[in-house]
Amino acid sequence: MIMIDLDPRDIEVLEVLTNLITISSYKLSKITGIPPASVWRTLVKLGYLNLVCKDGKHFRITARGLVLTYLFTNKKQIKAEVIEQLKRLWKYEGDEREIEQFLTYIVSFLKEHNISPFSICFNQPITIATLLLSNVDEASEDVKKVIARLVLNFFPNTKITEFCKGIISIDEHGIPYALAVDCKKDGVRLFHYCDIINKLYCKKV
Questions:
Q1: Maximum CA pair distance of the chain?
Q2: Closest CA to 194 of 145, 150, 163, 175
Q3: Spelled out in words, what is the top-level CATH class assigned to the domain 8-88?
Q4: Mean pLDDT value across residues 93-98
Q5: Domain limits of the chain?
Q6: What is the pLDDT at residue 56?
């Protein structure tokens, strides 16, 4: 298996891109003091890893690049900027604290299961959401809420009531439940059972 890692120069470039969103390789060289040829090689490498992408004459960081920056940087300000940018890119409707908890959980989950972050496409957050879906027992309520929102944003929803929508499934006992639900009464939740869902979807004997 080929091991992928980021060196200090890669991380520095990602940190700058996190703050500036888009930038030319020339300006990036001026800001960092890294020689233009070296900056270009770094951008090519990061582009190959899908951490940055070319936008006309400029380069911009991807959602995947933001998550990897969060994992590799030691700078609190950069981590805070990553969270803000991911909220925008993922079109996340919750608050930034939830995303912070989500990213922290991702770090511990990947370490515990010996999974390389480079093997996951964070550009589509549903990828990591579905990976975590079967491993949420020890996750905080904020983490579960993020996963639920990402699942709701990706898959078609069913209107359960005027104030409630969800993704309906059936458990191993034949009982209907919401894999993810956005409910006025109970909030955004995973694996939600309620009488209304049961009455609407339970097979009549």
A1: 74
A2: 175
A3: mainly alpha
A4: 92
A5: 8-88, 155-205
A6: 87
Which residues, in sequence order, are CB contacts of 185 under 8 Å at separation 6+? Answer: 163, 164
Question: Residue 182 belongs to what H/E stretch?
Answer: strand 176-183
Taking the alpha carbons at both ends of the chain, their separation in whole angstroms is 54
- Based on its alpha-carbon atoms, the radius of gyration of the chain, rounded to whole angstroms, reads 20
Supply 193's token pair. 């059972």
Query: pLDDT-based confidence at 23, cuts 50/70/90?
Result: very high
| Size of the chain, expressed as the number of residues it contains | 205
Residue 19, CA distances (Å) to 13, 69, 83 in order: 10, 11, 12
What pTM was computed for the model?
0.87
Q: Which amino acid is at 9?
A: R
Give dist(CA 199, CA 3) in Å, integer. 52
Q: Tokens representing 138?
A: 């020890």
**Pairwise CA distance, residues 49 & 55, whole Å:** 16
Q: Over the range 10-34, which residues count as b (16 or more CB within 10 Å of their CB) and which as e?
A: bbbbbbbbbeeebbebeebbeebeb
The alpha carbon dihedral of 82, 86, 88, 94 has a sign of negative
Q: For 54-194, where are the alpha helices, taking DSSP H only? A: 63-72, 76-89, 96-112, 126-133, 141-154
Backbone CA torsion sign across 184, 186, 191, 193: negative
